Every structure is written in structure tokens, then in C-alpha cells.
């Protein structure tokens, strides 16, 4: 029975490649490829059957319905809260604008009275809301600062409240309209020189335009995400095909080309060995020719005479050094009076070292 039901559900999605594509489209969040589905056909059928009962995020249909209802309820409550928050923020901005204008210009008496009444009423309402702890805490707790909301409500201005309530919708409408116009000009600065009626007409369509652009941006974002997923799949497929091609090329190189290349490499190796030996022999012959050109019979005999002379001078210097050292040792105990003898001894040592160096250099060149 279960196998028959699956066979009825799976063909609805398609077969072969179309089935694989539809399964991948039904589960975009899963890191799968078409090759994975081809290698695991039973798993592919399971996903195709599961796609009939869940959406792309993995939620079941009943759960998605409940989630949508909760989302609608949340949006409704959010709109109500935003409506009250916008009104409250608008009133606060009206009072702030009034305070700024009051310090720069002379405000009419009726406007001054209206804004002061609104400010006092809002201040009292704020204090009442702060003192009302019945929503979040027990009512038996002591009141803040020993006050209760009823006592604060007594501070509500009794005069001009009725007049303020009558004028409040009009003033608030003016303020909100001013904000809407500033938003309109921010959205399209080129409309600043238009007439008031044309601005109001464009303002009435601003919400629809923004909603259209928002939907367009979301649509482009979804298209971008789909293109990203598609690009990843194509990239994986391309890499897979490239890997297969590389493996095929490697097999061709290893199985065919290297067999033919072996004999050629041996011949090349023998050729390079012979060429290398020839170059080495040529280098040795060039070195011998250079030595023969540099060291002739006359030069060698002159070097021998110079060496004999230097050796004789070295022996004489050594004898002289020994005699000086003996004298220096005998007179060293006498103190500073023989400093000149010590300096002379140092000079002799330096001369001996210079002659030793010259003899060593001459010996090296003669050996070459």
C-alpha cells in the first residue's frame, strides 16, 4: 500500500532529470546536487513524496497555516501600536518645534496656550503611565513616591482642555502633513518647485509607490538568491565535469604518451651526458691554456728567485726577531725606560708578518 501511494505521488512531480530539478527546487535550503539524487534514487523518491506535505522552508501545511495566522495577528497588533506611537511621537515633535520657535520668534497667545496645554496633558499622562504598576506588578505594592495615578490626574489642567481637544486634530494633521511633504521632497527633491495641489496629489500616491518599490526590491532579492543557488549548482556541475576531464587526460598521459616517451628520454639523456662530458673537457683544456699563457719559463724562474730571496730575508728576520726578543726579555724588568725598544720590537714583528704573507702568496701562485 505504501509503495503504491508513493508511486502515485512521485510521478506528479516528474521523472528522470525533471524530477531531480523539481526536488532541488522544492528544497532550496538543502545542500544537494543532481548527482546526489542520481546516485540515491530511493532518497530522491522520498524527497519527492515529502515535497507534497511541506513547503520550501520545511514546515508542514497546518503549521504554516497557524504560523500565517499568528503573523497576521502580530501585524495587526503591531499596526495598532505603531498608530499610537506615531501619534505620541507627532505630539512630542509638535511640542519640540513649539519650544524652538518660542526662543526665536514671538508665538501668538492662542498658539502658546494650545501648546502649553498639550505639553501639560502629555506630561500628566506620562506620569500616570509610569505610576500605574497594576499591569506588571501586584497592586498591594506601595506607590512610587507615595503617589497614585488618581492624585496625578488632579494635576491635569482644567482650563482650555476642551478648546485644545477641538484644535488638536487640525494641528496634528498640519504637523503630519508637513512631515509627509518633507518625506516626499526627500524621495524626489525635483518636486520641490511644484504647486501645493500637485504635491498633495503626489503625496497620496507616495505610499503605493514605496510599496511597489519595496516589492520590486524583494523580488530582485529573491531573483538574486535563486541565481546564486543556480550559479552554485552550475559551478558544482562544471567542477565535476572538469574533474572527469582532468582524470581522462591523466589516463591518456600515463597510459599512452609515457610509453612512447621512454625511449626518447633515454636517447636525450645519453645525448646530454655526452654533451656535458664534452663541455667539461673543453673547460679543462681552456684552463690549461690559460695557465700556459700566464706562466711562461721566464716567469717561473723569476718567481723562484723571488721566493729564494724572500725565504732568505725571512730567515734573517727570524734571527733578528729572536735576538730582539732576548734583549727585550732581559731589559723588560727595567721598566718604562726601554719603551723605545719595545716600539722597535713591534715594528720588526710587523715587518716579519708582512714578509711571511708575501712568501705565502708567492708559494700559492708558484704551486699553481
Automatic annotation (TrEMBL):
GO terms for cellular component: HAUS complex. GO terms for biological process: centrosome cycle; spindle assembly. GO terms for molecular function: microtubule minus-end binding. It holds the Pfam family HAUS4. InterPro entries: HAUS4, HAUS4_met. It comes from the Eukaryota. This is HAUS augmin-like complex, subunit 4. It comes from Mastacembelus armatus.
